[in-house]
Amino acid sequence: MAVSIANLTSGNDTDGGSSSTTASVTPSANKLQLLTVVSRTGITANPNQPTISGNGLTWVAINSVVYDTTSSSRKRITVFRAMGASPSAGAITIDFATQNQTHVLWVLDECTGMDTTGTNGSGAIVQSATNYNDTAQQSTITVTLAAFSD
Q1: Is-contact 65 130, C-beta < 8 A?
Q2: Whole-prediction pTM
Q3: CA torsion 53→119→110→81, rounded to 10°?
Q4: What is the DSSP string of 45-58?
Q5: Of 91, 101, 100, 148, nearest to 125 (Cα)?
Q6: Which residue in 101, 53, 56 sits closest to 77, CA to CA?
């Protein structure tokens, strides 16, 4: 089975609020939704990990990394997954629990040809890994994954 990816929406918000809303989207039934969110605060505190709601889906954080922690404008990138038998059309809300963000950007991709077993798309995500050194400038990043079972 071939895997394909279609972008449903992408955008940004620079109003400085504690939540952002995407354009209205219509996710397909039983297709993996991957939402990547990058946020930045204008303070030295780490950005809160956002929570996601919308489309009648349960959004689960796969991985979240805070970076640029040596600056006064810290950043976070978080990837979420969701999948459901009957998602609804509508906007997605990205919420930072009352912590204002100076910049938020997002990309929502719908993946076809993925494993549809598991809850909320868990069967399609075998593992995640990060390898980021926040104190050194890196020209390449190597991420080591464990051996796959099949």
Answers
A1: yes
A2: 0.84
A3: 50
A4: SPPPPPEEE-TT--
A5: 148
A6: 101
